[in-house]
Every structure is written in structure tokens, then in C-alpha cells.
Design goal:
The structure holds two protein chains of two kinds. Chain A is mainly β. Helices cover 0% and strands 55% of the residues of chain A. Helix content of chain B is 0%, strand content 57%. The chains are: A mainly beta, B mainly beta. Chains A and B meet through β4, β5, β9 and β10 of A and β4, β5 and β9 of B.
């Protein structure tokens, strides 16, 4: 079983719609969860992190965490073409480790 | 100032050669990582170091040898390069606290021909 699993994608949404990205993880001891965005040919950059159950909002982005279900999600409201990228879910099982999912490729069509 | 810098950005080499990738961070972080990203974008951890000490070695062939001369530097040496080693290699660093993010270098695209 993979440590971090994401929708394989690709995911395509029209401009202005809500994009929903999902992630599950296997290590119940994991305490912090991250969403990175990676444009083609670039390095991953952090969008949000979350470590408490519930929702965390930052502008158009909302991260949701359910530790009982070992589930993390990212919602992007009012999606823009500039949001088109690969979204990577990451988990920190301990202080010196960070594990990534395979990424979901999002395309926002004008 | 670049927070995490790695060199070179591109590396094209023949099978069987030995090559190195260098990484330096000026963030004062204790933990550094090497990741390999294949053509399907999967970012797989290879190694992590904490203050020069190897913490994670993820079933990586022993042709790959990381070296950390100090906590700000983590280099990756690869012996006897194979076609399957072609990928983008990312260096990253983080504070040791579990609730902090990792910062990435710009990546090194390695092509073995």
C-alpha cells in the first residue's frame, strides 16, 4: 500500500468552478499535511498546510483534514487558468521525513 | 538570495559515468532531503539527513551516495549511471519540527544517454 495516495487525474474544470483534490495516507501517526503546487518544469511550492481536524481557509483555497478517515483534501474555489498545475499532497510521518503522493494534474479551461 | 540552491540545473551524461549534484541551503534548517521525480511526477524520497547524520535511506541502490559535509550542504554522488537514473532530482530542506514545510531547490534534470 502506498503511503500517500491521490486521485490519479487528470482533473479538468471550467474557469470559475470549484476544483476538489483528494488524498489519503496510511501512517496514522502522521501529524502534519501539506499541499504543494508544481508547475511544469518548476519545483514544488507550498500552498497550504494543516494539522488539526477540520477546515482551514486561505483565500480561494480550503484544506480539509479528517484524521479518523486518514483523509486530506484541497478545494480551489473560483478556479483560474493559472491554477493549472500538478498538486502534490505531502505528509510528515516524523520530524525528518516528508512523503508525497503521485500528484493530481489539474487543468482549468477558460 | 536563493534559499535552497542546487547545481547543475541540467546534466546530460553517458551510461557508466559518475556524476555529482550539489545542494546548499541558507535557511538554517537542520534537515535536508534528496528526492527523485520520475516522468510521472511521483516525488520519491531517497535520503534525509539531520545535521550531517543520515536518517532515511529509502532502498536506493548503493551507486547513490549522499554526503553532508555540514548541515547546510547535502551532495549526491552517483556512480555507474544507468538509463533508469534519468529523472529530476530535487534537494529540499526543512526545520526539524513536524509542522513545518519543506523548501525545494530548482531541481537537476539528469539525462543518461
Amino acid at each position: 500500500q502506498k503511503e500517500v495516495e491521490q486521485n490519479s487525474g487528470p482533473l479538468s474544470v471550467p474557469e470559475g468552478a470549484i476544483a476538489s483534490l483528494n488524498c489519503t495516507y496510511s501512517d496514522r501517526g502522521s501529524q502534519s499535511f501539506f499541499w504543494y503546487r508544481q508547475y511544469s518544469g518548476k519545483s514544488p511550492e507550498l500552498i497550504m498546510f494543516i494539522y488539526s481536524n477540520g477546515d482551514k481557509e486561505d483565500g480561494r483555497f480550503t484544506a480539509q483534514l479528517n484524521k479518523a478517515s486518514q483523509y486530506v483534501s484541497l478545494l480551489i474555489r473560483d478556479s483560474q487558468p493559472s491554477d493549472s498545475a500538478t498538486y502534490l499532497c505531502a505528509v510528515r510521518p516524523n520530524n525528518n521525513d516528508m512523503r508525497f503522493g503521485a500528484g493530481t494534474r489539474l487543468t482549468v479551461k477558460p | 538570495d536563493t534559499a535552497v540552491s542546487q547545481t547543475p540545473k541540467y546534466l546530460v551524461t553517458q551510461m557508466g559515468n559518475d556524476k555529482s549534484i550539489k545542494c546548499e541551503q541558507n535557511l538554517g534548517h537542520d534537515t535536508m532531503y534528496w528526492y527523485k521525480q520520475d516522468s510521472k511526477k511521483f516525488l520519491k524520497i531517497m535520503f534525509s539527513y539531520n545535521n550531517k547524520e543520515l536518517i532515511i535511506n529509502e532502498t536506493v541502490p548503493n551507486r547513490f551516495s549522499p554526503k553532508s559535509p555540514d548541515k547546510a550542504h547535502l551532495n549526491l554522488h552517483i556512480n555507474s549511471l544507468e538509463l533508469g537514473d534519468s529523472a529530476v532530482y530535487f534537494c529540499a530542506s526543512s526545520q526539524v519540527n513536524w509542522n513545518t514545510e519543506a523548501f525545494f531547490g530548482q531541481g537537476t534534470r539528469l539525462t543518461v544517454v
